[in-house]
Amino acid sequence: MGRKYQIVNDEYFYFLTFTTVYWLDIFSREIYSQILIDSLRYCQREKGLKIGAFCVMPSHVHFIWGCQEQGTLSGIIRDFKKYTSNRILKEIQLHPQERRREWLLWMRERAAKKNSRNKNYQFWQQHNHPIELNTNDKIDSRLHYIHNNPVEAGLVYEATAWKYSSASAYAGRESLLDLIYLT
């Protein structure tokens, strides 16, 4: 991986996207989105994660993330992805109303067989494509992209209407997470 897409300076915030394998719509279910939010709260409280923005889409999540200590953002990413992967897969296996259970598990098992890093199941795609946000123009561009993603996807008419997004917080309304405002 080239230096362009690595976390090299924890002084800056980074734009990150985590995508489920095969772009499967996992976060169309409230229970799985809530697992993400709970994990983010934990990372803020216990690991020093700073969240500048977020948007949970049905098959992927966008973030602007930073951290309080040098050298820890990559570790937070690793731990967050590992925990959410295991927790959501466990919920899929145990949830009695998940009609897609067998298919979802089969797809994740199929993805794991193609990746030597996984034993049984793979939930997230491997790459994060971190982009260092070291200028105001980059911050503004990514913030706009994140908040308008549900609108562009045709899920809502205005960004502040999407529940699992920081757009409402930037508009002065309540948010699901504590945010560091970037503008």
Automatic annotation (TrEMBL):
Q: Where is the Transposase IS200-like domain?
A: 9-149
InterPro entries, alphabetized: RAYT_transposase, Transposase_17, Transposase_17_sf
Q: Which domain of life is it from?
A: Bacteria
Query: GO molecular function of the protein, one example?
Result: sequence-specific DNA binding
- One example of a Gene Ontology biological process annotation: DNA transposition
Q: What is this protein called?
A: Transposase
Q: Which organism is it from?
A: Persicobacter diffluens
